[in-house]
Design a protein that fits this description.
Length: about 70
């Protein structure tokens, strides 16, 4: 995870956030919310692992069969 040149938070593939439900909800992530509000500062970059707020994101897909015309 790092800030890009436009001050956007970039999540990388090795961050635990990739499979976290809180990332999918956006501001539901306490760390990203704190970074966005400037409460927490990040120097350079960090790899997120063993995050205490982690919630596994489960994708629920259903197969939709097209109706006959
Ligand atoms: S709760 Fe933790 S693992 Fe989930 S998106 Fe936020 S920082 Fe990443």
């Amino acid at each position: 995870m790092y800030f890009d040149e436009n001050n956007n938070i970039v999540i990388e593939e090795d961050d635990e956030c990739i499979t976290c439900a809180n990332l999918n909800k956006g501001v539901a992530c306490p760390l990203i919310q704190a970074l966005a509000q400037g409460v927490v500062f990040m120097e350079d970059s960090l790899t997120v692992s063993n995050c205490g707020f982690y919630e596994k994101f489960e994708r629920h897909l259903r197969l939709v069969i097209p109706l006959d015309k």
